[in-house]
Amino acid sequence: LDVVRAVEPRVADAIGAEIEDQRASLKLIASENYASPAVLLAMGNWLSDKYAEGTVGRRFYAGCRNVDTVESLAAEHARALFGAQHAYVQPHSGIDANLVAFWAVLSQRVESPALRRAEARHVNDLSEQEWAELRAELGNQRMLGMSLDTGGHLTHGFRPNISGKMFEQRSYGTDPATGLIDYDALRATAREFRPLILVAGYSAYPRLVNFRLMREIADEVGATLMVDMAHFAGLVAGKVLTGDFDPVPHAQIVTTTTHKSLRGPRGGMVLCDDALAEHVDRGCPMVLGGPLPHVMAAKAVAFAEARRPEFQDYARRVVDNAQALAEGLLRRGATLVTGGTDNHLVLADVSGYGLTGRQAEAALLDSGIVTNRNAVPQDPNGAWYTSGVRIGTPALTTRGLGTAEMDEVAELIDTVLRGTTARVSGGGEPSKAQYELDPALCEAIARRGADL
Ligand code: PLP
């Protein structure tokens, strides 16, 4: 840090403070983890200085042999790790990976002369007239994805994301009685809507998804099955999700982030079958800017780590820990969506504590417990205040916490939520944002958390 401090000490201070914060708190955000020093170091080096648009061996820039090496290695490790025919490791993030995948499916499936022209040139070179033709030919394509309030992601066709403007979208959800994906309703919607793309995958669903069944439904209606495994890629890599629950053998195209349960650098990736490979490889420059060679190097290191037997043990412990946390919370009277978990996350409905998700998230943070608020199905408090908190175990499992500690974490969470009350306004209305919590309790909980 001294090298950074000599140039801009405030940045060095922020980096140092971040390390302190991460050490002192209980990181339970389901999408976060701790990358290894090998991954971090592979990311912070001179590879960052290279431009390398194109693909391995076919670059638009000279001098890319070292970038070719790291990109090939990352792709090779990814293919072996996931048993995929093709891996494209350039996407800078999960959103970018999804855009590459959407574009690839459009490019493969939609007969469009304007698209062929666009692919042959740089998108910036298209005239207004050509863009209009492209929009007309590609427009009105349909996407069916999991609804946001039952755990889907913004990029699966929702308005706040470009995918919601690119596609006519419809959602499938969960059975209100069980909280589980209702495959019969999903099949009926797919038959009626006939989407080009059926998207499976989630950000906040605590159960397994049957990808074999999803593919069956997709085939029946002529859709391409795309699975966004951003959240659970580590569980696939670690062979906890196998058979019907491993998306790779079932989906034509699979996208992921590399920084969540997979424990790599911040970034994205697309896996696909051979038929889609040439379309996916056009991601840069069609959708992406120049690749980040230093991040591809770090992906290669992370995937090599994930191919070791220890990673399978890690993935198993992530799920054991989530189940121990779920049991600990349930035993103390908490309400969990679906009543438990099969994966790395728990979705607690905190309305039983008289709180919104926003109040619960803030009170937990005051006590050194970092979670994030999340809508629950049919949430009466909407997407901003919400009624839930999402709690995940990938990061604390990396730190070595086990099931006994998870029970203690459940105790800490329950104690904070019981000790927090919604502030009541002059008119007698409970606030959705303000709350009361004894600072001494916060301090005691934070101390105990830091000890763990
Ligand atoms: N897909 C899913 C399922 C996600 O949960 C997320 C991020 O939370 C993304 C995509 C987007 O990833 P990124 O933030 O890297 O763009």
UniProtKB/TrEMBL annotation:
Location comes to: Cytoplasm
Cofactor(s) required, per the database record: pyridoxal 5'-phosphate
UniProt cross-references to PROSITE patterns, sorted A to Z: SHMT
Which keywords, in A-to-Z order, does the entry hold?
Amino-acid biosynthesis, Cytoplasm, One-carbon metabolism, Pyridoxal phosphate, Transferase
The record ties this protein, via Gene3D superfamilies, to:
Aspartate Aminotransferase, domain 1 (3.90.1150.10), Type I PLP-dependent aspartate aminotransferase-like (Major domain) (3.40.640.10)
**Per UniProt, where does (6S)-5,6,7,8-tetrahydrofolate bind?**
148, 152-154
In this chain the Serine hydroxymethyltransferase-like domain maps to 6-111, 141-413
A Pfam family assignment: SHMT
* Catalytic activity, as annotated: (6R)-5,10-methylene-5,6,7,8-tetrahydrofolate + glycine + H2O = (6S)-5,6,7,8-tetrahydrofolate + L-serine
Q: Assign the protein's first listed, main location to one coarse class.
A: cytoplasm
**UniProt keyword annotation of Thylakoid present:** no
Which residues are reported to carry the modification N6-(pyridoxal phosphate)lysine? 260
Highest taxon, organism lineage: Bacteria
**Pathway involvement?**
One-carbon metabolism; tetrahydrofolate interconversion; Amino-acid biosynthesis; glycine biosynthesis; glycine from L-serine: step 1/1
Report the InterPro entries cross-referenced here.
Answer: PyrdxlP-dep_Trfase (IPR015424), PyrdxlP-dep_Trfase_major (IPR015421), PyrdxlP-dep_Trfase_small (IPR015422), Ser_HO-MeTrfase (IPR001085), Ser_HO-MeTrfase-like (IPR049943), Ser_HO-MeTrfase_PLP_BS (IPR019798), SHMT-like_dom (IPR039429)
Instruction: Name the EC number(s).
Output: 2.1.2.1
> Which residues does this entry assign to the site Plays an important role in substrate specificity?
259
Q: Which SUPFAM superfamilies match?
A: PLP-dependent transferases (SSF53383)
Q: Tell me its family.
A: Belongs to the SHMT family.
Q: Self-association or partners: how does it assemble?
A: Homodimer.
Report the function annotation for this chain.
Catalyzes the reversible interconversion of serine and glycine with tetrahydrofolate (THF) serving as the one-carbon carrier. This reaction serves as the major source of one-carbon groups required for the biosynthesis of purines, thymidylate, methionine, and other important biomolecules. Also exhibits THF-independent aldolase activity toward beta-hydroxyamino acids, producing glycine and aldehydes, via a retro-aldol mechanism.
Q: Cite the NCBIfam families for this sequence.
A: PRK00011.1, PRK13580.1
> What is the protein named?
Serine hydroxymethyltransferase
